Known about the structure:
Blueprint: E1 3-6, H1 10-21, E2 26-30, H2 33-42, E3 44-48, E4 53-55, E5 60-62, E6 70-75, H3 79-85, E7 93-101, H4 107-115, E8 122-125, E9 129-133, E10 136-139, E11 145-148, H5 156-165, E12 171-173, H6 177-198, H7 202-206, H8 209-228, H9 253-266, H10 272-279, H11 289-299, H12 304-317, H13 326-338
Parallel strand pairs: 1-2, 1-6, 2-5, 3-10, 6-7, 11-12
Antiparallel strand pairs: 3-4, 8-11, 9-10
Helix pairs in contact: 6-8, 6-10, 6-12, 8-11, 11-12, 12-13
Amino acid sequence: MKTLVVGAGALGGLIAARLLAAGVPVSLATRDARTAALLKASGLRVSGVGGALAVPVTEAAPVEDFLGGFDLIVLATKAGDAMEVAPRLPGLLGPGGTLLPIQNGSVALALADLLGADRVLGGLSNLGAAMTAPGAFEQRNAGHLLIGEVAGGESERAERVGRWLGQGVEARVTANFRGAVWSKLLINCAGTTIGAVAGGTLRQFTAAADGREMFGRVYDEALAVALASGARPERMVVDPVPPGWNGRSVPSDAQDAWLAQVLQGYGDAKPSMLQDFERGRATEIDYLNGHVVALGRQLGIPTPVNAALVETVHAITRGRLAPGMGLLGTILSASRAEDPGKGAPPTSRPGPAPGSR
């Protein structure tokens, strides 16, 4: 398959390097000609999980310089950039070619609506990677790409793309892509976003009462929207529906054990959104908690805490606020003031969160 990877950041660079090292020909679309020249001069280097490697790059250029005829385009930019560049990419696909976006959140769903499901195959990444220098990447976990038809079900196309990419990175195929999107979205909304706002990891913020409560309320709102939309979230590290969940998380030993499993899988990773704050980059908030809020509004499902998080992230991005645990208390106090009889929901239990000791 004639393959183009769009985006030479942590994820795109890692995937391109692993494929090239496996002997799979790959072209790399960069942000500008200067970046393309740097990569041609330096090649791609990978360290960390999966083993070190160094490969030369011969086909690198800005996306507008490519003539087309690609069988597969892997779109590996940040969400905002993906939505900006994606409308130009179908013109680079050959007959029967496929665009595979691998961003967090609702990007693949939005692009399938915009460009057509016949052109767009759903993709998610559980690969952890960081760019340590231009052309140099560190793989931080033994993750995988997840591929599936946006409409659901099995397809020869998904299997074919999975086999092709599987030559360089682990690739799995799912018949329940929307469910997989929601499974990751739940953790992104309640882990990545809250951690970014609080300025710490999931384990750190859930060790505090406000953080534990915030996690539960954001997760409950997002899960209610997911189920109301007809999605069937898939098990990842844990079953996406907490034990005893009845529209709200119910405090119990089983729920504590469930959260301990979440922390074991995701508790110590630095939130990517916090790294966006630190580097002055745009975040993916509108495709994470923002998607929950927008879809909740359509379905008549209240999402006040997710909405407050979206506003807070935008305020941090604009320099009006700084990340810190105190922001969680402010958001929770405001949400309680809107409904004084409600008080703290039953997701808060006294004492530290499981696994925080």
